[in-house]
Amino acid sequence: MTLLMLLFWLIVGGTLQAAVPAWRHMGQPAFPVLLGVVLYAAVNKKTRYFVVAALLAGLVEDSLSLAPLGYSACAFLAAGGLALLLRGDFFADKAHTISWFGALCAATSTGAMALLLRSKGLVALSGGAVLWRMAGSAILAAAIVPLLFGLIRGLERRLGTWEDRA
Amino acid sequence: MLAMMNLPDSASRRVKGAVRDGISPLQGVLRGGVRELRDIFRYVRGIGDLALENRALSEEIVYLRGEMRMARELERDNQMLRDLLGFVQRFPNKLVSCEVIGRDSTGWWQTVRLDKGAFAGVAEGRAVITTDGLIGRTVSVSDRTADVLLLSDPSCKVSVRLARSGTFGVVAGLGAKPGEQPACRLDYVLKTADVQEGDEVVTSGLGGLFPKGLLVGRVTKVEMDESGLYQTAWIDSAADLGELEYGFVAATEKDLAAARPESLVEDVLIDSETSSLEGESP
Fold this sequence. Notes:
The complex is a heterodimer of chains A (166) and B (282).
Chain A: H1 3-19, H2 33-44, H3 47-63, H4 71-86, H5 95-119, H6 127-159
Helix pairs in contact in A: 1-3, 2-3, 2-4, 2-6, 3-4, 4-5, 5-6
Chain B: H1 2-5, H2 9-53, H3 59-90, E1 94-103, E2 111-114, E3 127-129, E4 134-141, E5 146-150, E6 157-162, E7 168-173, E8 184-190, E9 200-203, E10 215-224, E11 230-237, E12 246-251, H4 253-258, H5 261-274
Antiparallel strand pairs in B: 1-2, 1-12, 2-5, 3-4, 3-12, 4-5, 6-7, 6-9, 7-8, 8-11, 9-10, 10-11
Helix pairs in contact in B: 2-3
């Protein structure tokens, strides 16, 4: 995944996230495209590449919301850090393991973001609402992240930029 | 990352604005595509229902009914434009018509994004309305986009009064609770005040942020506050906050003076087809 491709996925992710309506039944979690891109970089690329991906994805997500700059990057780094820890322990080419992995990281990212926003008094959500949203984001990520991994990997193979775990 | 988090407010706004302005054309295109798809889906579903009900009818009748449906769609669009025309003529402020191109991408806030920003005369802290009533206020404006904090967000507070009794209060959003429609609540209504279900709630004009007399919603339930000092009423917003497609930003003369003339010309052209606001550019 080159930097150009990363930018492409970030723009696609940002556009999609703002277009897809949040599901109230799931606690209104974000459609986890940007998170999926960050996780893909964390699992398949070098650490410094993942850090750049997390910072840029955070910049895009914060720019498209009322969150102060840097908050989403923190949440993405927390989720990506977990991904870095776990990446040796799961099969990155199996959809169901990616699904579980995506769910875990999405819940972590949502929890980290909730902590940051609540600590600054920017949102007024109860603990129950945050847990509900963490569960919702985990379910959404379980469905979306494997699909996104497949899409990014497929495009990388087509463009000849795919390489096994760095 | 620390540098990003500690950027001065003005620099942070510029960075965020640049990213939003860069992505907004794509959002507009995607939103338009989704709208087209939805219209096609509605049309196809209509034909499907018709076929179930009228299996014995010939293909020609189905075709003719399809044509009729299209004509009704056109009639509905026509009526909507006429409503907008009447609305714009009635409203005393200068209005910038905008299209909704997105929602908050994180889901932490109740916001929508409009396709016009500072270049078109939109400024922060302005009331945003539809033909049904108030929907919120602008909170973050870039050159080409503006974010609107909806009435349903807990941090959006509006000073209001009841149209029937003149009682004052403050409306605040309740956010989106799992499985429920976003709603609002009217607080700080005196316990002796006359509040009834169905009462219309309009902006009071106090504070100067929202123009006086804009319809906010209707009372659906009234209760005594836990402290026993006030009444609390639940409000059903007049505008459907979940299905917003258009909005009008109430701009001031100063906002329009700061706008780019070429953007205003475009707006005035749009307005001149639907209203009598020609010549509003500075």
